Structures are given as structure tokens and as C-alpha cells.
Amino acid sequence: MSKKGILTVISGFAGTGKGTIIKRLISSYGSRYTLSVSATTRKPRPGEIEGKEYFFKSVEEFQEMIEKDELLEHAQYVDNFYGTPKNFIMNEMDNGKDIILEIEIQGALKVKEKYPDTVLVFVLPPSAEELRRRLVSRGTEDEATIQARLARACEESTEMEKYDYIIENGVLDESVNEIHRVIQSEHCRTFRNIDRINTIKEELKSL
Amino acid sequence: MSKKGILTVISGFAGTGKGTIIKRLISSYGSRYTLSVSATTRKPRPGEIEGKEYFFKSVEEFQEMIEKDELLEHAQYVDNFYGTPKNFIMNEMDNGKDIILEIEIQGALKVKEKYPDTVLVFVLPPSAEELRRRLVSRGTEDEATIQARLARACEESTEMEKYDYIIENGVLDESVNEIHRVIQSEHCRTFRNIDRINTIKEELKSL
């Protein structure tokens, strides 16, 4: 069905494993998907490649992108700006690629408001207890940070209903296949196939 | 995700091959699906089994079902009534089965109005010309009947936009997998998982 690419935004609480799902989705079905690359004003870390991890911009360049409406959404974390360049995404979608964009809830809802055809997917942990276990087992955060992340999750959970789909990340491979299935099914949604419908209407009339 | 069964109504122009798709869907993924069995006042043909092809009813029994609101929808063709018994479907859905109901457009829209959670799938031919070829190659209808069916398709095509999904039936196996994928993805729709969402909200609060 519809060959035009679909923009899918994936969000979820910290520690749910959405990053791992996305990596696996790209490695399993890479020919269908393109990962959105963010623009940022933060300095590149050793090994980071321009256009792969990020598009690295000066603050002036970033502000120019905002003014020229070249960003789908943007946000500031600590002292750095992060944003989603529109051009890159639109070109890839015109080439039939489905775009995966991993951003937090407020950004996701802004994107959906501007582009209602966007698919919003929220990744859930099997349980809150399991989420805590995953955060603890990463071993990278102290107890205070873990508590802060759980409090943040509690806050974020009030917005889950605004997403189109939820995926429970229990078994990784199943979650990857579920997200793949959801996005590919979206290609069959009627509103994405109006041209196809109009064509068959015309054909039937002229038979 | 949501374990409750989903009701899917499949429609399409005569000759599109929706019957074949449904048979293949049931034979390929039978453990997930139940085919809705209609009630009818027409007499059983040799070999037809009560509760398999149809629930056979007298006109009085059928009218009682209408009065008691036991039918999801019903219609009259020639001298016979046909309808979709509600109980059978609801029980199967409670048991986690996804229901496949093949009815024409007016019935489908009535069902969706009454039960907005219903998924409406419209099966399209690859082209109007291909539809005509398929009708001709069945060899069961004369030219006048084929013309009438094509005129009917032209009429029906005005309602296609009201469906949730469209599936183009080019390669049978692909269409079957597409419909399967669409229905299974629907289990991840947020509005079908409100209980799940409320549970995790409560869990997060009480951590």
C-alpha cells in the first residue's frame, strides 16, 4: 500500500529499553527504516561522526535553523540545544523510508500536533518493579538518580494515553517485531491511501 | 498487549477475492481467529451444518432475535433474512479470539457505529480492469451480471474512505499476511489497553 515513508516517534520511560529496540529494529529491517539524526550544539565526542550520531552545529547555526523553521521540534538540555532537522526526514520519507525518531513525550506531542500523520509509539516496561530492576541493574546510576528517574516516569505516565500505540517490552525480539508490524500496518491506513482510492474510483467510472 | 478479541469486518467488491483471503487467514492462523457465523432464514442446502455455515432460523425466530437486540446487524436479500448473532461473537471475543465478519458496506458501517472499536478492512483489486478480468474468469456469470457487479462496485467505492484500512489483493499470501498484521497491530492500540496503562500508573505511584 502507501509507499510514502511514515514518521514514527518512539518514547518511553528511561530504562524501558527503547534504545535497544530501535537498534535491533534498524539492524533487522534496516532497508525499510532510517533513524532520524538530531542536530545539536554540544561538541562532538571522540569517534562521533558528523551526520551519523549528530549534525553538529554552532549556537548561531542552530538558532538560524529555528528561525528558518528547519526543525521539526527542538529542546534544550543543560546548556545544549537538540533538534530534529526537517529536511533530512522529509527527503527520506519521499524516498519511501520509514523514519524512527526517539524523543521524549513533550517533543513527541509537538510533532504529532504539527504532523498528525505521525505514529506515536510508547514503550512500556512489563511492570514498574521491573523498570526499577532494570535501572538498578544498569549499575550506572546512584540511588538518588534512580529515584528521580522513577519519579519522572510517574509524571510522564499521565501522557501515555495520547500515544497511538503502546508496546510492552518484555521479550526484546517480540517487541521489535511488534513495532515493525505496527509501522508496516500503518501503511494500509485508509487516510494514507487516498490517491489509491481515487484512482480505483476513476477506473471504475470509466470501465 | 490487549488480550480481548477484536472484531474485524472485511468488505470488498464482488470478485476481489476477499472470501479466499478469509479462508486462507483462518487456515493459516486459525488459533487466533473465529469466523462469525450468520443467522439466516434461508433453508439449509445439502451438506450445510447448523452452526458451521449458518445458524438456521425460522422467520419467527429471526424476528424475535431482532426484537431482543440479539443481532449486531441484519439485512434482507431477496426473500431471506441474514444477520450476525451478537452472543456468539461476544463470547468468542471474551475468550481472546479475533472475529472475522464478512459483510457488505452498509452493514459494516452500522456495526462500526454501534461498536466503534470494530476494525473495518476494505479489500481492493489491483485495478478495475483486473476486477473485471477476475469476474469474467470465474465463468459463473453472464455479461449482464458482470456489468451489474461493476456498476455496484462503482457505487460502493464512494464509501471506501469510511474504512480504517485498505488491503490491495494482488498476491494472495501477501494480502493474508497484511490483514493478519493489521489485526494483530490493533491489539497494541492505546485505547484497547487502558487497563494496562492504569495498572502501570498505579504501580509507579506506589513504588
Automatic annotation (TrEMBL), chains A, B:
SMART domains: GuKc (SM00072)
Residues that, per the record, bind ATP: G12, F13, A14, G15, T16, G17, K18, G19
Protein's UniProt name: Guanylate kinase
One Pfam family hit: Guanylate_kin
GO cellular component: a single term: cytosol
Organism: Parasporobacterium paucivorans DSM 15970
GO molecular function: ATP binding; GMP kinase activity
Function in brief: Essential for recycling GMP and indirectly, cGMP.
Domain Guanylate kinase-like: 5-184
Catalysed reactions listed for this entry: GMP + ATP = GDP + ADP
Intracellular or extracellular location(s): Cytoplasm
